[in-house]
């Protein structure tokens, strides 16, 4: 099954400015980063991803309904919504492990700050 294409414009994917809704911005950015990492490293099969065109760039997100990794990872990432909304997260670590969590193969670290990017003028 080929990856489907979703041509949502950027404004529908992210807030107009990160400071408008930083929790939504960080959650969506985390989803895109982990999805594209998994797609590029071929960690999951192709059917677990949905292709999106954002500002003329091909990006991938997890298919929410496809078993085999995409659905499960999307569900796990969406569990972070609360900590982004309450701004109680500073670091998220995504690890690819061998046979157990004590056998990490790769890891991605995301550090977050909810301080405004630009001060109003």
Task: Characterize the biggest β-sheet.
Answer: 3 strands, mixed
- Give the termini separation: 50 Å
Low-confidence stretches: none
Approximate helicity band: 25-40%
Average predicted local confidence, pLDDT: 83
- Beta fraction of the residues? 15-25%
- The domain count comes to 1
CATH architecture group name: 2-Layer Sandwich
**Which structural class is indicated by helix and strand composition?**
alpha+beta
**What's the total number of strands?**
5
Give the SSE string.
Answer: EHHEEHHEE
Determine and state the CATH class: Alpha Beta
Task: Please give a structural write-up.
It is a single chain. The strands form 2 sheets. A 3-stranded mixed β-sheet has the order 1-2-3. The protein is globular and about 50 Å long. Helix 2 runs antiparallel to helix 3. It is of the alpha+beta class and 121 residues long. It has one domain: Cell Cycle, Spindle Assembly Checkpoint Protein, Chain A, CATH 3.30.900.10. It is built from 4 helices and 5 strands.
How would you summarize the topology of this molecule?
Elements: E1 5-6, H1 10-13, H2 22-40, E2 49-54, E3 57-62, H3 70-78, H4 81-85, E4 91-97, E5 104-111
Helix pairs in contact: 2-3
Features of this protein?
3-stranded mixed beta sheet, alpha+beta, 121 residues, two-stranded antiparallel sheet, globular, Cell Cycle, Spindle Assembly Checkpoint Protein, Chain A
């Amino acid at each position: 099954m080929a990856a489907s294409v979703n041509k949502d414009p950027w404004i529908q994917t992210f807030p107009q400015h990160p400071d408008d809704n930083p929790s939504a911005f960080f959650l969506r950015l985390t989803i895109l980063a982990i999805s594209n990492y998994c797609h590029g490293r071929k960690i999951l099969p192709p059917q677990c991803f949905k292709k999106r065109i954002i500002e003329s760039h091909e990006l991938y997100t997890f298919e929410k309904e496809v078993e085999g990794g995409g659905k499960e990872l999307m569900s796990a990432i969406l569990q972070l919504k609360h900590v982004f909304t309450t701004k109680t997260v500073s670091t998220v670590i995504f690890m690819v492990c061998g046979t157990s969590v004590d056998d990490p193969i790769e890891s991605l670290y995301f550090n977050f700050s909810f301080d405004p990017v630009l001060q109003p003028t």
